[in-house]
Amino acid sequence: MVGHLLPLLVRQSELSAEVAVLREEVARLRDAASAPIARGAAAVPLDTPQEPRRTEATQPARLAAAVVTVVAASALLHWLLLFVYDAPPMLLRIVTLLVPLALGLRVSGSDGASLAAHALASACCGIASVAAMLAVTHLIDGVPLLPQDLREMREALEYCASIALAFLTGYLVMRCLRRARHRPVPAASHGALVGYAQRFQQLAGLLSPICAGGLALYSGLKSLGGG
Q1: Whole-model pTM above 0.90?
Q2: What is the DSSP string of 95-125?
Q3: What are 155-185's pLDDT values in tens digits?
Q4: Is 182 helix (H, G, I), strand (E, B) or coil?
């Protein structure tokens, strides 16, 4: 019987030794895996305030920056084309309509501001741009800063309206493009009346920037044509 128990005791001792080795190996691997986590936690304390995330400029700030850019560009172009290069006034009118149109498209690329906000920004853009151009003429030629009669007042107001409508046209064009891109396909069960209403809405949205752009061109070029 002792001869049978002796091999079992030897095997049990061998297994106990193997279990001890495995425990040491597991403990070593566990310490090695937890060491980088401990170093990272020590490098960044928990009570350290994190840097706030940078947020993009709000839409009103974008509109204000676009208005300032249009005003500065209008004054600079007025000085360059009329007083430096002696270009025709027609070229100045066309260029000063293209600049607010392009910036209106650019600032309307992201949603966030309503039509009323863009209309207000457009009005400020037109009035400030014409005022800046009148100031440039006043400083260089010494003419009165403000219009002196009804004809000059009408021309100034028409020029203000043309720049404002050009800026607003950019917003309307971009809004129509966004709506056309995201417009859902109507279901067949909605009926013909819903289809006609959607077509009318689509046509109105398409005509609004065209009308605004046409008015801008008419207001900007009318006085030059003797109207």
Answers
A1: no
A2: HHHHHHHHHHHHHTTS----HHHHHHHHHHH
A3: 899 899 989 988 988 888 887 777 766 555 5
A4: helix
Task: Return the pLDDT at 16.
Answer: 72
Residue 112, C-beta contacts closer than 8 angstroms, at least 6 positions apart: 58, 59
Encode burial over 188-206: b for 16+ CB neighbours within 10 A, e otherwise: eeeeeeeeeeeeeeeeebe
* Residue with tokens 């060491």, as numbered in its chain: 35
Residue 77: how many other CB atoms lie within 10 Å: 20
What distance lies between CA 53 and its chain's CA centroid?
19
Cα(226)–Cα(218) distance, integer angstroms: 12
Give 202's pLDDT tier (boundaries 50, 70, 90).
low
Q: Are 86 and 147 in contact (CB under 8 A)?
A: no
- The full set of domain ranges for the chain reads 1-44, 59-225
CA angle 216-219-222, nearest 5°? 135
Report which DSSP code applies to 225.
G
- With left for phi above 0 and alpha for psi between -120 and 50, is residue 132 left, alpha or beta? alpha
In this structure, are residues 186 and 52 in contact, taking their beta carbons and an 8 Å threshold?
no
- Amino acid letter for position 189: S
